[in-house]
């Protein structure tokens, strides 16, 4: 149960890369529409393998790229179970080695036995995998507590859809974004994205990286097992998803982009994991007074669109 790699479509487009210093300036101003305390600066990437991030590699540098695989149309209205992708093969196909891969996607249902969230975090170097990806499932016997588990090194697949940031994981300059006390309606990622939408009308800027929700709680969902009846509306979708308020500290990974780039993109997508068992798809904090975020991001040089759905729709992309 996997896609046919010989016929898999892969499109590639370049991205604009404003200098990080310029982005820091733009974001310092823009994020103030949604947060009371904002500091954005350019720093040497801290060692992201350390607590609290515990990612598979230290940095976000070295041929950084956004990679979007599949899409929501492979999940809704009904699942296309054959849409399973081995990231080891995708990394080879796009010439990424070493490939430090972080991001948000659907976990490998053939491994999990059910549909699940994937919080991607792995390194593949010369075929050797260091897999630190978590998956999160709804526990059918107690839906209030999701089940998080870590994938083994020999399981490198995602299913259906994924928004990934590839780099070689090298140290280097990154954007450090610290924001505290949310005063506006947008979540942390949407506020970054909206700032880039407003500033760069004729450029396409994509970011990938990781952020920590240091304080507070976040609304996150975990997908239940595949629906046997078609899901055609946002209301049906929200009844199928299981929503949680998950508590900090949460480590989120994913991508955002200011513009669709004519590639039918999901313009922001972050999943988070934790060391206390909770993991899922990030929507927004539910504790604006105490919410505190710390993120590290790099710009992508290009975007790869893998197996873009031919028949598409716009719902379910929140
Ligand atoms: Zn998601």
From TrEMBL:
4Fe-4S is among the record's keywords: no
DUF1907 domain span: 26-306
Annotated compartments: Nucleus
Keyword vocabulary terms for this entry: Hydrolase, Metal-binding, Nucleus, Zinc
Entry-linked SUPFAM superfamilies: AF0104/ALDC/Ptd012-like
Signal peptide: none
GO MF annotation, one: zinc ion binding
Main location (coarse class): nucleus
GO CC annotations, alphabetized: nucleus
Assembly and oligomerization: Monomer.
Protein name: Ester hydrolase C11orf54 homolog-like Protein
Native organism: Tribolium castaneum (Red flour beetle)
């Amino acid at each position: 149960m996997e896609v046919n790699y010989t016929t898999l479509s892969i499109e590639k487009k370049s991205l604009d890369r404003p200098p990080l210093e310029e982005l820091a300036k733009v974001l310092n101003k823009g994020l103030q529409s949604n947060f009371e305390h904002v500091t954005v600066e350019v720093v040497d990437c801290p060692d992201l393998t350390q607590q609290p991030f515990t990612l598979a590699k230290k940095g976000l540098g070295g041929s950084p790229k956004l990679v979007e695989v599949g899409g929501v149309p492979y999940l809704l209205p009904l699942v296309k179970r054959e849409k399973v992708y081995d990231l080891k093969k995708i990394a080879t196909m796009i010439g990424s080695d070493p490939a430090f891969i972080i991001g948000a996607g659907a976990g490998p249902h053939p491994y999990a036995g059910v549909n699940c969230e994937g919080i991607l975090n792995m390194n593949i170097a010369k075929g050797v995998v260091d897999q630190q990806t978590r998956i999160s499932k709804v526990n059918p016997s107690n839906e209030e507590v999701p089940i998080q588990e870590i994938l083994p090194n020999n399981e490198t697949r995602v299913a259906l859809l994924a928004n990934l940031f590839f780099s070689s994981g090298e140290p280097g300059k990154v954007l450090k974004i610290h924001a505290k006390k949310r005063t506006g309606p947008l979540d942390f990622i949407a506020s970054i994205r909206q700032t880039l939408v407003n500033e760069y009308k004729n450029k396409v800027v994509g970011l990938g990286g990781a952020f920590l929700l240091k304080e507070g709680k976040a609304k996150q969902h975990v997908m239940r097992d595949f629906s046997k009846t078609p899901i055609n509306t946002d209301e049906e979708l929200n009844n199928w998803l299981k929503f949680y308020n998950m508590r900090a500290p949460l480590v989120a990974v994913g991508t955002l982009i200011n513009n669709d780039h004519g590639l039918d993109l999901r313009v922001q997508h972050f999943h988070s994991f934790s060391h206390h068992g909770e993991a899922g798809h990030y929507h927004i904090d539910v504790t604006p007074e105490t919410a505190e975020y710390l993120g590290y991001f790099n710009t992508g040089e290009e975007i790869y669109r893998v197996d873009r759905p031919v028949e598409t729709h716009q719902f379910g992309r929140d």
